[in-house]
Amino acid sequence: MGDENDGNQQKRPAIVWFRDDLRVSDNPALCEACKTGSSVICVFVLPEGLDQLADYGSAQKWFLHHALAGLANKISGLGGRLDLFHGNEKDVIRSIVKETNAGSIFWNRRYTRHGRDTDAELKKEFKEAGIEAKSLGGSLLHEPYSLQTQDGGPYRVYSPFWRKLVSEGEPRLPLPEPDGIDAADVQDGTVTLDDLKLLPRDPDWASAWKDFWQANEDGARARLEEFLEAGDGIDGYSKGRDFPSRDNVSRLSPHLRFGTISPYQIWSATRHAEDKGDIPSGDSEKFLKELAWREFSYHLLFHYPDISWQNYNERFDEFGWKEDKSEAYHAWCKGKTGYPIVDAGMRELWQTGYMHNRVRMIVASFLTKHLLIHWRLGEKWFWDTLVDGDHANNAASWQWVAGCGADAAPYFRIFNPITQSRKFDPDGEYIRRYVPEIADLPDKHLHAPWEAPEDVLSDAGIQLGQTYPKPMVEHSCARERALAAYDKVKKDDG
């Protein structure tokens, strides 16, 4: 593995191992490889046989397919080539290094326990063999270990984390894409994109998703520019982001998850638009705070790597959540709970691979508090069906809503799906889009169809229990049941 060519390390090729950083601009690992002056081998390995955190959900696989196609085109345009592999990550990377007699390998850091352990093992091994192995920061504004409390520990609450983050000063500016890539050949083990079998077939349930997503680097840039245009999505973001029928959301989350855009690019572009006076500073700060929430989630994942399956707050290990995939769970998954705002969110998820953030909180609260079903089941469903399923955000946000996470919503905060619906979808545009069978109800009754008189239901063509479900639980009863369960945990802890 460590054989010399002619004694000149610069002549041996450099490897760039792409993972969740599928872009050529602002890619530190790619920039470092190109700086060596060597030919560059660009590789992506679809993992095989790894733990649950390393697997991709079904919706993510769809996005990944198109992101890889976009990355391959970008690299080709710079004179290089993206080589694809499928197998055990460590074995594949070792084989590539050995076959190509590479002198160096570069990657951008990842933060799951499995990813960190794999990277540390390979880095040590390569360095001992005389091969330069370097990891760089490309997906977070600050490394999780670099932001510490005054006591030198990790943050457990978001607000002081945000203050610490901004006190560190503005993040670095995005790096430009390389002027060109001198491609090196890899022969053994490469596969085609179709060989990876990432797209759904029989049936193709994602056939309409191209109408919602341009899943590549160009699409990420275009979406950011559109969002930041004066008078567009970010204008009014602070309040408008809570209304699911409005365009005051960036929909950049899947691009961040796969690294078709970096947080540095988003931060820099937002600051630039703010400095030009295109957007109100209050809206831009709120948007950047949401970017920082992602950072906080990764901070938690780094310091508490089991948060995807273990309660952050251990006292909730005794909480009486149901852990079986019951009839109620399946009704929730299918958007057939009888609560229109919940059903609209779950159907948006299925139809688009995405769900509005406000609605995510509503449906998560409904599952964990109205139905008392374990947040882990909801997290797994989101992981499989969201194009932005993220190692850190998904688990941290579910635990926040469930009340067992860091900086969690108070246990007694139980979202009322009726009042939430009336407040944030007052004209019913969002509900009517995704629950068309009740679209003819007047606004007054759209949010709680079971309260409508029989003649109103008849005029709208609705038969509760047949054309649309009756509510599977009664809100006030479910609320009291949840509060009693949470109170028991609180008393047991005291």
Tell me the count of domains. Answer: 3
DSSP E strands, number = 5
Amino- and carboxy-terminal Cα gap: 59 Å
The CATH homologous superfamily of the largest domain is named: DNA Cyclobutane Dipyrimidine Photolyase, subunit A, domain 3
Radius of gyration from the CA trace? 24 Å
Report the portion of residues in β strands.
5-15%
Overall average residue pLDDT: 93
CATH class of the largest domain: Mainly Alpha
- The CATH architecture designation of the largest domain is Orthogonal Bundle
Please give the share of residues in helix.
40-55%
CATH topology term of the largest domain: DNA Cyclobutane Dipyrimidine Photolyase, subunit A, domain 3
Structural class: mainly alpha
Helical stretch tally: 20
